[in-house]
Write a structure and sequence with these properties.
The structure is a homodimer. In chain A, helix 2 packs across helix 6. The first copy, chain A, starts with 15 loop residues before the first helix and ends with a strand. Chain A contains 14 helices and 23 strands. Strand 5 of chain A pairs antiparallel with strand 5 of chain B.
């Protein structure tokens, strides 16, 4: 599907940024509003988010987490309680100063994240070791006053979930951050068909206030990296700052260990940028709001709409998300490119000739293949094709990631490979932030993560030549 | 269940306000935060909201509505576009004046409701008559800078859904407002077990900017009324102010007709205040986060936990929301009152004697009845008991409403009946707001609605004695 057939969107390989903006608008995922940096998520985009929510929420609940809802506003004094945290977030929050006509005694910010709110409640709710663990999550919007905006990737307001948990021991908290990272990874790979790189963030890139941040890194079509989800191990940093204390089984007051973790509407940006092509969006079947669209051919002719309706019912009855496009004011060609733009995984055509020969024509969005499917095997074949498409998209993205991962032993190599847009470049690192800064300055690439699966390329830091501590994946990132 | 057994909460008939606050805190539905007027919805309270969302969302989607997400912030100039609307909401919004360290060029309010945002997008999205109807909804939080706070009933921030639709004709818009009102009514009566009164708001009580507002009124245990849901018919008021125009099938530019409608976390307040008793919360089975709690008796004895586990699995397997309380650090008595406080519809006890006689003991939260259920009939009997409990709660609330509804022909009667806390008082009204104001001044009761089911009590307005136009339900309200 590399052929460019669609004139409504920029070419994906010539101008990826424009292609992306064109696709999110033309596929009606999102739209710009009168409010700078804030976007409206349209019905089709929100339906993807609902599928993401449904899948993840079930997994969080299966692992013992419950949902709550904390206030939208954080008083300035509360934000200031953890010193690294306030330093990280205060410069980019929106401040509420007036309620109605009255000036507030203390200004409040719209939550950029809710650690401080959870901590203030936890300090009331935790009393005994029997109250632990506390495993809460919330689905909400957050606000960060960014200067630049890109739909789904960077906007002042975005939707996400934020998990916040308290544990008896450091080990248990650490296990939680890794268990949730596994849930995210499984979800990304098996639902979004996006291969992930699992690792730990460097000190410089970690969350303000965390002891350690773990992340999932993904690689987009243009070989730029995108962090799709993170989990944070706070140790006792927040629980000490907020005086969260419990009476242990030995009768001693202790501070619990804490985590937080999140994934956002950014993940929709990743779906677009990993799978999309010159005809628009390509959505993996498992996450697609519409999995199959039925386009009747010559629908004014006898039996066509009736038979299309039967096919619709058969597929709906086995739980598939299916649409029948019987609009009479658009040509078949228009309908085809409309649903291609929207990335619907399977198009099913049925016309007089198909009815005569007891078959339908099935077109795959991912490969562009067209095939006949006998009417009696409809359900079985469609499910097979959807599975194949899901797998195809993952394999394709994995191949892309592998092709776009290289390694460097010297700064010259690192610079050259980043410059030639080679995606991830693996290189050894001494662990000092001065080298991390220098790599960024020279190559514009950041340390995406210290991957859990370490390799040994050499004994020397790619930058300073001193003893290497870790292998790092470097890349330019969104 | 009028017997007061629980010392942790105030008596429901002596001090209803304190009883309410005690219950929401002790049942862990909600908690106060450091932020005045903003509350934290705890896991148990949020689980009720999730059930409400799930039920209503399915009904909205079945009737063709899709979810979207609009920005949280509204620029002041946008809020000002519809004159009645801004007059109604501007005095009670929270204003954002700074982003990071910068003063904003134009201040923005946190949405108190999103008509203006939907309108600004609709003016971009609607082009042709073929684009109509537009049927959108969003689930979000909104903020209104209230002076006084009561959990779920009145708080600065609350959660709700707001539907916003556009239609070709006035009749179609009107049909939408009534169809949605029916959805809300069916949901309230059949899921929340709360009988509703359907009617139209007076001019004075209608939504700022609406042509007509329809509402569902409910009556609490203390015989004070609560408006649980509203739908608004905007006619072309907003579409003209926001220049939403489409090309009709005759090639003429026209303004569509518009509606909006919403139900909020207030409905949780109604559940509490309609069904609760002196032992705490009573939740109707269909909406209960936990429908059945299994409390093992003498759980340290052989077989007890094993058999309790089997019962748990059998009930879970037929799709019921069931919990097994095998905590070993609380007495059976403590567990009983804990789950009673939380209003779990059915408690199931199983101990060595029950195991011996192949039965369980079932206690109903609504009536307090206890009965033996043979093990082999478990699933069938539990489902029957849940249905009976759902019906019992509705019937009880309906009886209360009927007992607390009277009528008045004179102002003296109206005043006397409102004063003696008689709930709804029906009385005739001339339709003039001067009489509506006078009734409120004298009795503190407001016109709850002009009910769809009109009755003829007399020809004269209860206040001025002039010709009556409508029968009105008057009541004090939350």
């Amino acid at each position: 599907m590399a052929d460019k057939k669609n004139d409504f969107i920029a070419d994906i390989d010539t101008d990826f940024a424009q292609w992306y903006t064109d696709v999110v608008i033309k596929a009606q995922l999102i739209d710009y509003t009168d409010i700078k940096g804030c976007l409206a998520i349209r019905a089709y985009g929100y339906a993807i988010w609902e599928n993401i929510q449904k899948e993840l929420d079930a997994r969080f609940k299966d692992t013992g987490h419950e949902n709550v809802y904390m206030p939208l506003l954080i008083p300035e004094s509360l934000l200031q309680k953890e010193k690294d945290h306030v330093k990280g977030f205060a410069p980019e929050v929106a401040w509420v100063t007036h309620g109605g006509n009255d000036l507030l005694e203390e200004r409040m910010c719209i939550r950029p994240t809710s650690e401080t709110l959870f901590c203030s409640m936890y300090s009331k709710w935790v009393k005994s070791w029997r109250d632990l663990p506390m495993l809460y999550n919330q689905w909400c919007s957050v606000m960060r006053w960014e200067k630049t905006t890109r739909p789904f990737l960077r906007s002042r307001e975005f939707l996400w979930q934020e998990g916040h948990t308290l544990h008896l021991t450091e080990e248990e908290a650490q296990r939680e951050t890794l268990m949730i990272l596994d849930i995210y990874a499984d979800f990304c790979e098996n639902f979004l068909a996006i291969p992930v790189l699992k690792g730990k963030k460097t000190e410089k890139e970690k969350f303000p206030g965390a002891r350690a941040t773990y992340s999932l890194e993904t690689l987009m079509h243009d070989s730029v990296a995108l962090q799709i989800a993170t989990t944070h191990d706070f140790s006792q940093n927040f629980s000490k700052a907020f005086k969260i204390e419990y009476l242990s089984d030995k009768g001693v007051l202790e501070n619990p260990y804490q985590t937080s973790w999140g994934i956002s509407t950014r993940s929709i940006g990743a779906i677009i940028m990993v799978h999309g092509d010159n005809n628009g969006l390509v959505i993996p079947p498992k996450i697609a709001p519409t999995q199959i669209v039925i386009v009747p051919i010559a629908q004014q002719k006898a039996m066509v709409l009736e038979e299309a309706g039967k096919v619709f019912k058969r597929l709906k009855d086995i739980g598939l998300r299916v649409k029948l496009d019987d609009r009479d004011n658009f040509s078949t060609g228009y309908k085809f490119s409309d649903w291609e733009m929207k990335g619907v995984p399977i198009r099913l055509e049925i016309g007089p000739k198909d009815i005569e020969s007891h078959k339908v024509v099935v077109a795959r969005r991912d490969t562009g293949e067209k095939m006949d499917v006998p009417m009696e095997a409809l359900e079985v074949e469609i499910v097979k094709i959807m599975d194949a498409s899901q797998q195809f998209l993952f394999d394709k993205a994995l191949k892309h990631k592998e092709e776009r991962t290289s390694f460097a032993l010297t700064m010259d190599e690192l610079q050259a490979q980043i410059k030639s847009k080679l995606g991830y470049v693996k290189a050894m690192w001494c662990g000092e932030s001065v080298c991390e800064d220098k790599v960024k300055e020279i190559t514009e690439a950041t340390a995406r993560c210290i991957p859990f699966e370490q390799e040994h390329l050499s004994n020397q830091c790619v930058c300073c030549g001193k003893e290497a501590k870790h292998l790092v994946y470097w890349a330019k990132a969104y």
